[in-house]
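fyi for ur records
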Amino acid sequence: MYTLRPTSFFRPSSRPTSPVPAPRQEAAAAPERVARPLSKLSLANFRRPSPSPATGLIPSTVVQDGSFMEVLGLKLSEAVSKALAQPSGPGVPGELLGGRRPIPPGRGHALGALIISEVQASRENPHLYRAVIRTLQRPLSVLLTNISTNLIPLLSSPAFHTPAAPTVQEPQPSATQLHAVALATFAGELLEAFDEIGLGYEIDTRGENLKTIREGLASIVKRVVEPLINGLKNELMPIIDSLESVPPSAPINHAVVGKTSAAIKSQVLHPSIIILQTIIPLYSRVLSRYVASAYAESALASFVISLVWRGLVALSNRSVPGPSPPASPSMSTTTLKVKNAKKPSTTPPATPPAGRFTLKLPPSRPTTPPSPGLRGPTVATDARALYNLFEQLPKPSKDKEQTRLAREVVDEAFDGLSSLIALLESIQMHATPARPVAPGASPKAPLADLEADLELLTEDIPIVIAIPILLRTFIPSERSVHGLLGLTETEYRKGCLSGFGRAEECGIAVGQRVLDVLRADPAVRAQEGTDGFCRWLERELQAARAERGELGDGEGMDTAQH
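which gave:
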C-alpha cells in the first residue's frame, strides 16, 4: 500500500563513485590515440587525405549544390547596380542634367575586370565555364536594358543635336551630349574587357553565349558617337571644299617687300585655313572626349580619312587665277602727290622728290612672276597649313589590336597629303616661270628636272589627284579632267572622287582616257610639256596595272562612267 520512496539511504555505497572511472578511462585512452598514427596502413589514414582535394576544388563542389552560382549572380548584380549608380560629390554645373551627373569614365573597366576574373577562373572546367556564362547573361541583360532606357530620351532630345559642333562662344558639349557620351564610353570600356578574353564571339545553339550582349553594347557606342562626329564633319566639309576656290589676291604693299618671309606667308594663307586654325583645336578637344574607347575609334578613322580626302581634292583642283592688273604705279604716284600737296616741302632743292623714284617702279614690275607662279606657293602653303591642322586631330591607337588596321589606313591618308605637299613645293621650285634659266639652256629645262622626280613625288598620291596638278603644270590650258573624259563635273566627282577606294578603282581608267585624248589632239602634242606629262602618265598606269595584276586597259572606263 505504501511504497517506500528510494532515497540515497537505500542506494549502494558504490553508485556515487561509478561514473568516475569512465572519464579516467577516456583520459587514459588519449595517449593511445597519439600512438595510432604509427600504423601507416590504417583505414582512417586512407580516408583523411580524401577531403583535401575536394576542398581545393571549391568551384566544382559548390557547383553541385548551386551555392556558388547564386553567390556569383548576387555579386554580379551588385556590381551592375554600382556601375550605373550616381557618383558621389558635387557636379560641374555644365554637366548636370536634371540634377544628375554623367557616369564617370573607368566604371566599364572595373566591371569588366570583375567579369574577367570570374571567367578566367573557370576556363579549365568546361561545365563550370558554361555555368558562369549562363549566370552572366541575366545581370548583363539587365545592364543593357538600363543603359538603353537611359539613352533613348537623350538621343531623342533636341539638345543632343544642338549645338552640332562646338564654337568659340560654347566650346563644351551640352549636358545631354555629355550624358550620352558617358553611357557610350561605359559600353565601349566593357567591350574592351570582352575582347581581352574573347567573350561574345562564340556561337552556341543553346544560347549559352554573350553575343547578343556584345552586339547591344556595340550598337550603343555607334548610336551615340556617329551622330556627334557627323555634326563636326558637316561643319568642316564646306570649309575644306572652299579651299578649291582661288583666294582673293592681297594688295601688294611695297613697305613689306624687305620684311621677313613669315610676314609675307601670313598674307597668302587661304581664308578657309584661317577659319580652320580657330575651330580645329576646339574640335580636337571635343573628339578626344567623344572617342574614349577603342570601339569609337572606327568612326574617328572614317572622319579623319574623309577630311584628308576632301582636302586633297580641293587643293588639287584649285583653278588658275587670272592675271592681276598692274594698276599699282599710278595709285602710288597719286598718293604721293596728295601727301606732298598737303605738307610743304622742307627738303633742300638739291634733294629729288620721292615721286621721281616711284616713276621708275613700272619698268621693274614685269619681273613679278605671273599667275602660275603666284598660284604655286599659295597652294603649297595652304597644303602644309592644312596638314599641320589635321595633325592636331586625334587618331586611332596603334597599340590596340582592334584599332591597328584603322590607324594604318589613317597613316596612309596622311602620307598622301604629305606627298601632295612635296609635289606642290617641287613644282614651285622647278616649274616657276620666273625662275632664271641658265645661259644656253632651253626654257623647258626646269620641267625636265621636275619630270625626273615625278615618279618618287607621286608614289603615294592617287592618279586622279596628281593628273589635274601636272596637267596644269606641263600643259597650261583651260581643259579639265572631266572635260577630257566627256563627263560633267558632277558626274566625275560623284563617280571617281568620292573617296580613296573609289579613286583607286577608277585611276587606271581615268588615266588611260586622258592619255588617249591628249595623244589624239595635234594642238596638245605640239606643246613642250606634253611629252613629259604623257611619259609620266604611262609609267603610272604601268605601275598601277602591275600592282593590280591587270593587263588590259579598257575594262575600268565603263566603271568610271557609271
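The first helix runs from residue 21 to 35. thats all i got for now
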